[in-house]
Amino acid sequence: MHYIVHCLDYVGQVQKRLDHYDSHKAYLATNPIRTLISGPLLADDEETMIGSCFLVEAQSMEEVMTFHRNDPFYAAGIWEKVSIRPFSKRVDNRT
Q: I want to staple 87 with a disulfide (CB 3.0 to 4.6 A). Which of 2, 51, 70, 72 is the partner?
């Protein structure tokens, strides 16, 4: 099953995000879950990071929740709002 993890930062978290970026990146590199696509969400200026988005593949919602709770960004309290939802992929135009 695919899941979307959509995270919005508390306002003004860019420096805190950067401070924890290396540990976040190292965590993701351990492949705790199959991540298909991930990256930061951007403000309207298309530069300022304001959140994170992941498209993951997992056996259960609990597996995704564990992945999320173990992320250093979660531990640092960067994300204000998080939505985790099952996703039914209908179209995939990636090459």
A: 2
3-state secondary structure the chain: CEEEEEEEECCCCHHHHHHCHHHHHHHHHCCCCEEEEEEEEECCCCCCEEEEEEEEECCCHHHHHHHHHCCHHHHCCCEEEEEEEEECCCCCCCC
Q: How many residues does the chain have?
A: 95
Q: How confident is the model at residue 95 (pLDDT cuts 50, 70, 90)?
A: confident
Query: Distance between CA 27 and CA 44 in Å, rounded?
Result: 28
pLDDT beyond 80 at 61: yes
Contact 9, 80 (CB under 8 A): yes
Judging by beta carbons within 10 Å of its beta carbon (0-12, 13-18, 19+), is residue 79 exposed, middle or buried? buried
